[in-house]
């Protein structure tokens, strides 16, 4: 029975004999990924408007798992979908630690069925896939799993579509559970869903423990990673040919899944790049990347440096790159570090490619001397960040950069501010860039000088930044410095 009542009528109705319950009707919102809002890309944001909402922009994807007719790419609405997983019984079950019954990481076939039958198993995170641990517990006869973080993953929690009732706990709670099992002769537990509780002001963003990180050992003069972007617990389309765990023994088939990984960060950045491309059709890929890098932020919502969930400590440019992408700021970067084909050819020459190998890319005759006059440091690639490798404690390294004024003011004047890494002196020449209608592109040199120290006192790496500002724009480039303590590239 559905009726419309005032609060007074509702109170009276509850008192009528025979009325078992009165349930107010509620407006339900569609549950979806919140990353667009987190990125500032809610409807009406500057980037959405200025890019025409990305109309006409096509993102090319080299992948074998993208099906263009998937519902996630459809413009039609989606109906209500109700699903409730099989809950554990509401009484407590015996609790065991996998390290006491076979393998702490719950490898397939490593758990003794006789010791986990009908029990909840605590599995340590690491060593193998998280969902594989749940499958191993289920195959051994376990009824549930607690995925316990170790120091390597800290307090990072990732949602997975396990094959049995499961929950994941951070390192602090995990240590308490392990201690409880060790101290109690008959430990028990259950897994119940009590709803979602979000802290009043959780620190965000944070770098996932699994996130790709530097330094770049192949070309250490190029800082990696470039930026960070949302990639944890992302609601995404899923193939119908495998189960949500991607395990062969998973019989379930779903159209959507909660996925985590750099493979989820990539489409976020690709989408932002597509919107910027729509707003500025003449911009090169390098200019778009520059805008994303120089406008990224490295402070969380509490004003502190972004933390690394793997260590619980503050992250560095080797972990977060320039920082977290900021789509709306990237729309107006002020200056960009642009590149064309010749820049990339010079870079290939600098890292040891000869003319014959490069000819494959540039379609030049193998006999032509493509690298003639192009020898130099890989660090001179016109990148928006800086990675320096000192060969000695008194080494000096100089890089050249070229910036293009893309701001609204043709007569902009930018002054430099340097945050020097520890044990490094930095000089920028010139320290002021004066642009005009005739001079939209200017260059500068940045010289890094190592402070003379004894090798035993050398710290592995230090970090800083350089920022050009005209009072409106802040064009920041991260700096990473390492000392080579040997003659081989592997010692970096």
From TrEMBL:
<keyword id="KW-0645">Protease</keyword>
<dbReference type="InterPro" id="IPR000209">
    <property type="entry name" value="Peptidase_S8/S53_dom"/>
</dbReference>
<dbReference type="GO" id="GO:0006508">
    <property type="term" value="P:proteolysis"/>
</dbReference>
<comment type="function">
    <text>Required for arbuscular mycorrhiza (AM) development during AM symbiosis with AM fungi (e.g. Glomeromycota intraradices).</text>
</comment>
<feature type="domain" description="PA">
    <location>
        <begin position="93"/>
        <end position="176"/>
    </location>
</feature>
<keyword id="KW-0720">Serine protease</keyword>
<dbReference type="InterPro" id="IPR003137">
    <property type="entry name" value="PA_domain"/>
</dbReference>
<keyword id="KW-0378">Hydrolase</keyword>
<dbReference type="GO" id="GO:0008236">
    <property type="term" value="F:serine-type peptidase activity"/>
</dbReference>
<dbReference type="GO" id="GO:0048046">
    <property type="term" value="C:apoplast"/>
</dbReference>
<feature type="domain" description="Subtilisin-like protease fibronectin type-III">
    <location>
        <begin position="380"/>
        <end position="481"/>
    </location>
</feature>
<dbReference type="Pfam" id="PF00082">
    <property type="entry name" value="Peptidase_S8"/>
</dbReference>
<keyword id="KW-0052">Apoplast</keyword>
<keyword id="KW-0732">Signal</keyword>
<feature type="domain" description="Peptidase S8/S53">
    <location>
        <begin position="202"/>
        <end position="304"/>
    </location>
</feature>
<dbReference type="InterPro" id="IPR023828">
    <property type="entry name" value="Peptidase_S8_Ser-AS"/>
</dbReference>
<dbReference type="InterPro" id="IPR023827">
    <property type="entry name" value="Peptidase_S8_Asp-AS"/>
</dbReference>
<protein>
    <recommendedName>
        <fullName>Subtilase family protein</fullName>
    </recommendedName>
</protein>
<dbReference type="InterPro" id="IPR045051">
    <property type="entry name" value="SBT"/>
</dbReference>
<dbReference type="Pfam" id="PF02225">
    <property type="entry name" value="PA"/>
</dbReference>
<dbReference type="GO" id="GO:0009610">
    <property type="term" value="P:response to symbiotic fungus"/>
</dbReference>
<comment type="similarity">
    <text>Belongs to the peptidase S8 family.</text>
</comment>
<dbReference type="InterPro" id="IPR041469">
    <property type="entry name" value="Subtilisin-like_FN3"/>
</dbReference>
<dbReference type="Pfam" id="PF17766">
    <property type="entry name" value="fn3_6"/>
</dbReference>
């Amino acid at each position: 029975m559905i009726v419309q009542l005032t609060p007074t009528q509702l109170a009276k109705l509850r008192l009528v004999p025979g009325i078992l319950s009165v349930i107010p009707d509620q407006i339900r919102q569609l549950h979806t990924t919140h990353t667009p809002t987190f990125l500032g890309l809610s409807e009406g944001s500057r980037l959405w408007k200025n890019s025409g909402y990305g109309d006409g922009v096509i993102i090319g994807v080299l992948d074998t798992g993208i099906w263009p007719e998937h519902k996630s790419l459809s413009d039609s609405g989606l109906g209500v979908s109700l699903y409730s997983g099989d809950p554990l019984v509401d009484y407590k079950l015996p609790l065991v630690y996998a390290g006491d019954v076979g393998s702490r990481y719950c490898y397939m076939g490593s758990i003794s069925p006789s010791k986990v039958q009908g029990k909840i198993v605590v599995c340590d995170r690491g060593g193998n896939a998280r969902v594989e641990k749940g499958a191993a517990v289920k195959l051994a006869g376990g009824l549930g799993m607690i995925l316990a973080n170790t120091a390597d993953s800290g307090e990072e929690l990732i949602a997975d579509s396990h094959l049995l009732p499961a929950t994941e706990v951070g390192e602090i709670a995990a240590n308490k559970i392990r201690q409880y099992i060790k101290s109690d002769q008959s430990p028990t537990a259950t897994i119940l869903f009590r709803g979602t509780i979000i802290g009043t002001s959780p620190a965000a963003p944070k770098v996932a423990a699994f996130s790709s990180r530097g330094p770049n050992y192949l070309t250490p003069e190029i800082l990696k990673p470039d930026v960070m972007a949302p990639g944890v617990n992302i609601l995404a389309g899923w193939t119908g040919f495998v189960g949500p765990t991607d395990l062969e023994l998973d019989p379930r088939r779903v159209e959507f899944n909660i996925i985590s990984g750099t493979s989820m960060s990539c489409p976020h950045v690709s989408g932002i790049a597509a919107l910027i491309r729509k707003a500025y059709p003449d911009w090169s890929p390098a200019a778009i990347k520059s805008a994303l890098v120089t406008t990224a932020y490295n402070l969380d919502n509490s004003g502190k440096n972004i933390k690394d969930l793997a260590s619980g400590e503050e992250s560095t440019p080797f972990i977060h790159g320039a920082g977290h992408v900021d789509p709306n700021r990237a729309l107006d970067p002020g200056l960009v570090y642009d590149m064309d084909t010749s820049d990339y050819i010079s870079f290939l020459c600098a890292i040891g490619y000869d003319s014959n190998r490069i000819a494959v890319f540039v379609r030049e005759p193998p006999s032509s001397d493509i690298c003639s006059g192009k020898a130099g440091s890989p660090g001179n690639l016109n990148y928006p960040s800086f990675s320096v490798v000192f060969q000695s404690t008194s080494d000096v390294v100089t890089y050249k950069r070229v910036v293009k004024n893309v701001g609204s003011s043709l007569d902009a004047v930018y002054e430099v501010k340097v945050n020097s890494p520890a044990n490094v002196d930095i000089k920028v020449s010139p320290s002021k860039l004066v642009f005009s209608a005739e001079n939209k592109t200017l260059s500068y040199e940045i010289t890094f000088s190592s402070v003379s120290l004894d090798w035993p006192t050398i710290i592995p790496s230090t970090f800083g930044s350089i920022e050009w500002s005209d009072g409106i724009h802040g064009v920041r480039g991260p700096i990473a410095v390492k000392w080579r303590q040997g003659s081989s590239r592997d010692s970096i």
